[in-house]
């Protein structure tokens, strides 16, 4: 699926049409079978890992997504930890990719806003790898969350209607920009005046993606994947939170706009599907209970 997504990006001159903010897609280099000779040089460069059959599983070799720089890690540590000592100097934490969770806040009070008075350390994990940055934290830092929502909407529309995959299990991270040309969706950079400085969004993890039938059944699969995956996308169940409502409206409207452009030349049955996707997502609020560590069953 990774190669198919890359090919779709390469073959589409403006994918999606009028796409806004850049979302990078890592290049694909090779496939490693469990008995591939290349593992001999690869395994020593990876963290200590163990497999049930004492040999590695099949793997894809892809472009490395470069972690955020030290100044960004310092910002996160001092903003969201009571005791930052030692975190920055931990080598493990140098490989920090930020996961923008537009669909989740750390705590909610009765008004839907993040609850105050909770210790910083109870809100974040102990490490910086795959660091979850929630909607209220983005607001606190003044990050361009609305721009992230538009970028995710374009990416999701592209996956659904150009690649024709259900996009189940895809992930987004904020990391360093590329220093060379590469395949991406959109062209515009995020607000360079933010506290993160120059940064880019990357689209990752296509293992769970399946074919999306251009039918009502396909719409159901899309809704299931939307709710079962990690909370990257803004959610329609805003619980009275104005900030979440704004993010959802921006995401929904942009998704529909980009989707309509991509299905414009299709028959009427297909042209109706983007609106059906959004309606099904709204209808299934609370139907699918996401589990931490959920993996696809495909």
Automatic annotation (TrEMBL):
- What is one Pfam family matched by this protein? DUF3669
InterPro entries to which the protein is assigned, alphabetical: Znf_prot_DUF3669
Chain intervals for the UniProt region annotation (Disordered): 106-125
User: Where on the tree of life does the source sit, at the highest rank?
Assistant: Eukaryota
Record-annotated DUF3669 domain positions: 201-265
Name of this protein: Zinc finger protein-domain-containing protein
What species is given as this protein's source?
Parachaetomium inaequale
